[in-house]
Each structure stands twice: as C-alpha cells, then as structure tokens.
Amino acid sequence: MTVYLLSRLVLRRLTGAVHPAQVVAALLPLALLPVGLTLAPLAALAVLTVLLIAMTWNERRFDRRDEPVDPARATRP
C-alpha cells in the first residue's frame, strides 16, 4: 500500500501540486508498521481500517475532480 501511495505522490507531483496531507498519508503506513506488529490481529485490522477510511475521506476532500457540476450545463450523450 505504501509503494502505491508513494508512486501516486510522485505522479501527482509531476502533474501538479501535492498537498502535505497526502505526503503524511503515504508515509503513515510505514510509521504504523511497528504498532501493527505488536497489536493483536483484530486490533491491527481495526487500525488499518481507520487509516483507509481517513485516507479515502482526505482524498475526497482535496480531489479537484469532485467539483460540483451545474445541472443546467450538464450534457447527456
């Protein structure tokens, strides 16, 4: 997951700006790896679930493609 997020950051950096929260989200799984190894499996799964939900929420919040579309200007094929 971390490799995917880091490669996505590089691609976003090449095509535009990168928000600092995206850098934190990409490096957070590496920082949480020792915690995940010491926790019980169910607790580690809960931490991973919370991390993925937070990352998804963050992407939806900062993604520029999610701008509202004016229904009067929307065209149908």
User: Biggest sheet: strands, sense, closure?
Assistant: none
Number of helices: 3
Q: What percentage of amino acids are in beta strands?
A: under 5%
Q: Which structural class fits the helix and strand makeup?
A: mainly alpha
The chain-level mean pLDDT equals 78
Broad shape? flat
Distance between the termini: 37 Å
Helical fraction equals over 70%
Poorly predicted sequence stretches spanning 5 or more consecutive residues: none
**Element-by-element helix/strand order:** HHH
How many strand elements?
A: 0
Radius of gyration: 17 Å
Task: Set down the secondary structure blueprint.
Blueprint: H1 2-15, H2 20-38, H3 41-62
Question: What is shown here, in short?
Answer:
The protein has 77 residues and is mainly alpha-helical.
Structure description:
The chain is mainly alpha-helical and 77 residues long. Helices cover 71% and strands 0% of the residues. It has helices at residues 2-15, 20-38, 41-62. α1 (2-15) packs antiparallel against α2 and α2 (20-38) runs antiparallel to α3. The mean pLDDT is 78.
Features:
77 residues; flat; mainly alpha
